[in-house]
């Protein structure tokens, strides 16, 4: 296949780096189109594992420095997976719901954190940043391939799909200090967009929550507020 | 003065954006060389406040679109402060200690979070990313100007300067679950570098701490782990 610089409109994307590709091979092998490896790749444990998994799963492994160099920003990228974009269904367990997140670095960091705190279901509402952008894939360090995610146009559509979930919208003017919140399963942590947060209508969809902070800052960064929410919900167990 | 693209070796730097410049004017006015404003700047509350503060403090305000366009990446930057790099002393209160942090986005996010949780003293050990890089300044959203920070070459030098501080190094193999840690004031939260964390010698400098997470990820992102540490220390109050 012809390797072209990634665009959102494509139905495929790239996973760069040995460990993200190992996760791709382990968790989303059915979506793999092909794997590229550089001629200069050493025989580190990671590279060996890529080769073993490709063989085991019958996936083509192509040596091509140029293909990788066309896409990778970092010089020391030796392995690249090309995969079809895919949809997943959510599985049992709690949800993280992000409303129109725009910053790819934030989304990547959040996906890695949610997996760290055993949240495996991500819901994206409205027009969010492209979850398959190679930058997001890379910043999740492979975690993207281990979680489930689903898009909805509106929070109402999501809510009617999951009527039993207790919603906890995080808002600067939330009604309850996060330290006093009991997260009743199954639940959804709901976070607004980087610049606007959640508007006041979200107060009515569930138990609104605030993270107390000093008046020296307007708000916490989205990835930080979300991670503290995920941590607080998991620290109670 | 001639405006040139920022370099680490310069003894001055730039604060971009209305609100970071307001913080610069309020907290580090003595370090300001000059303020630039675009001819197209509207008369929003923020811009009015910049003008008022410049007048009050006798700081020159120059209209120059070109100066700002040379430095700013974002088109909608209307105000830029040029300031001398400065040193500060630490003040009373707890410390955040970062060992050789490299990622500027991480440092910016961490500075904003520490201020949010009322930590006002940042210690940087060894060769860290440039805290005055305009990218860091911008990502702190002005918080940089409200905190104190100090560089040390080694953790030993820092420790001999602050012998009464109780150290809490954060490590994957920390001895105590963060939920069980009592942070005894005055204390220092110590975080390692993005890729290496802290080596095992740090276990002996204080009460080592770990943040429990699933085995699905190797580690939390530095900004996330640090923010959870700051939050946990402040949530106990």
Outline the fold blueprint.
Two copies of one chain form a homodimer.
Chain A: E1 12-16, H1 18-27, E2 32-37, H2 45-57, E3 61-63, H3 65-71, E4 79-84, E5 95-99, H4 104-116, E6 121-125, H5 134-139, E7 148-152, H6 155-161, E8 166-169, E9 176-177, E10 187-191, E11 209-210, H7 222-235
Parallel strand pairs in A: 2-3, 5-6, 5-10, 6-7, 8-10, 9-11
Antiparallel strand pairs in A: 1-4, 2-4
Q: How much beta of chain A, percentage-wise?
A: 15-25%
**How many β strands of chain A by DSSP?**
11
Q: What is the fold named in CATH at topology level of the largest domain in chain A?
A: Alpha/beta knot
Radius of gyration of chain A, CA atoms, in whole angstroms: 19 Å
What is the count of structural domains of chain A? 2
Major sheet of chain A, described briefly?
A: 5 strands, parallel
The CATH architecture of the largest domain in chain A is: 3-Layer(aba) Sandwich
Give the N-to-C terminal Cα separation of chain A. Answer: 48 Å
Discrete helix count of chain A: 7
CATH top-level class of the largest domain in chain A = Alpha Beta
Q: Order of strands in the sheet with the most strands of chain A?
A: 7-6-5-10-8
Oligomer: homodimer
